[in-house]
Specification:
The chain is an alpha+beta fold. The protein folds into 2 domains: 4-164, 2,3-Dihydroxybiphenyl 1,2-Dioxygenase, domain 1, CATH 3.10.180.10; 175-371, Roll (2,3-Dihydroxybiphenyl 1,2-Dioxygenase, domain 1). 26% of the residues lie in helices and 34% in strands. The strands form 2 sheets. The chain has a 9-stranded mixed β-sheet with strand order 6-7-8-5-1-4-3-2-9. An 8-stranded mixed β-sheet has the order 11-12-13-10-14-17-16-15. The protein is globular. The termini are far apart.
Length: 374
């Protein structure tokens, strides 16, 4: 039974249990060894650890890569009849788990399942010579899950059964931490997903956008951002809206075969240096027309960065009452038009680029048209 304090917390947009932040994000991929190479060479991550048959885990191979506070696990199944293999078969490469670090995994699991979340894995301990962690997992939209990670009994560098790896290829690109993770859901499913995070976790609505905010000549979508109490965890949730042609959300859902993580936004120390390095590494970004930059300073006011350099790199700018932010989006990082990444730098601004929506989605539509999916 939930307490009166928990009921008040939900009403006031306060966390129902302690969430320290995103501990890691795990991807299920077809070939983790090759994926890890791409994340290292293209995006500047460092290989930190490995888990697999050599470490006593027989059903998978996992590569732990890190940059700043961003921790990704790239996991591939070793047997074709495993649930991981089925996930890759249906969805292609994609995010399986957005894991939270919590003070008490059992409490997090109990509260969320009592409030209606579907349990995937009940609380359990995982140990090695460095101690033990407690974990549990619940389901969220589509086949995505949230694990709860409690580390107070563990002294290792990451998680049990991972062995450390040295990385001679490491060339960081200046990424610091995950700013937000965007989920795409199908028609008329945004509100129930937003309510899930409000009711199950106590998250509050941070900001909402409707089809008047996010629309072009051809397509539209709606989005609501939910966040935990300290705003360290922010999840925009997107759904399609009526338009003349197929929206990017519809394209995603069609090719991912359901709801899932559309993109992960990562903050950079210096976005111009980050993007210059990534472009040199072969990362493909959306292209923004030169006309976007003609009256940029009139739209956003004074900024530190030279407009010409932003134009050359296709970096977008948006301002709110707290300051401004710079952002750019990669093209999908696999052959299915599903998962991509956003690189941002915040100079006080807390927005999600509302002023850039039209330019951004027109750029995405140009790529959709080339794929024949608009």
């Amino acid at each position: 039974m939930e307490t009166a304090e928990q009921l008040r917390a939900t009403e006031q947009g306060k966390d129902l249990f302690s969430i320290r932040g995103i501990h890691h994000i795990e991807f299920y991929v077809g070939n983790a060894k090759q994926a890890a190479y791409y994340y290292r060479r293209a995006l500047g991550f460092q290989l930190r650890g490995y888990l697999g048959p050599e470490t006593g885990v027989k059903d998978r191979a996992s590569y732990f890569v890190q940059q700043g506070k961003i921790r990704f696990i790239l996991t591939t199944p070793l047997h074709p009849d495993s649930p991981m293999a089925e996930h890759v078969k249906i969805h292609g490469d994609g995010v399986r788990d957005i894991a939270f670090e919590v003070d008490d995994a059992e409490e997090a699991y109990r509260i969320t399942t009592e409030r209606g979340a579907r349990g995937v894995t009940e609380p359990f301990e995982l140990s090695d010579s460095n101690g033990s962690i407690k974990m549990a997992t619940i389901a969220t939209y589509g086949d995505t899950v949230h694990s709860f990670v409690q580390r107070d009994g563990f002294n290792g560098f990451f998680l049990p059964n991972f062995v450390e790896r040295e990385d001679p290829l490491a060339q960081p690109c200046g990424l610091k931490h995950v700013d937000h993770v965007v989920g795409n859901v199908d028609w008329n499913r945004m509100e129930e997903t937003v309510n899930f995070y409000s009711n199950i976790f106590g998250f509050s609505k941070f900001v909402s956008f409707d089809d008047k905010d996010i629309s072009t000549e051809y397509s539209a979508l709606r989005s609501t951002v939910v966040a935990n109490e300290n705003k360290w965890v922010k999840f925009p949730i997107n759904e399609p809206a009526e338009g003349l042609k197929r929206s990017q959300i519809e394209e995603y859902v069609q090719f991912y075969k359901g709801a899932g993580v559309q993109h992960i936004a990562m903050e950079s120390e210096n976005i111009r240096e980050t993007i210059s390095t990534m472009r040199a590494n072969g990362v493909e970004f959306i292209n923004v027309p030169d006309t976007y930059y003609v009256d940029l300073l009139e739209r956003v006011g004074e900024i530190t960065e030279p407009v010409e350099e932003l134009r050359e790199l296709s970096i977008l700018v948006d301002r709110d009452d707290k300051g401004y932010m710079l952002q750019i989006f990669t093209k999908p990082v696999e052959d299915r038009p599903t998962l991509f990444f956003e690189i941002i730098q915040r100079r006080g601004g807390e927005s999600f680029g509302k002023g850039n929506f039209k330019a951004l989605f027109e750029a995405i539509e140009r790529d959709q048209a080339e794929r024949g999916n608009l």
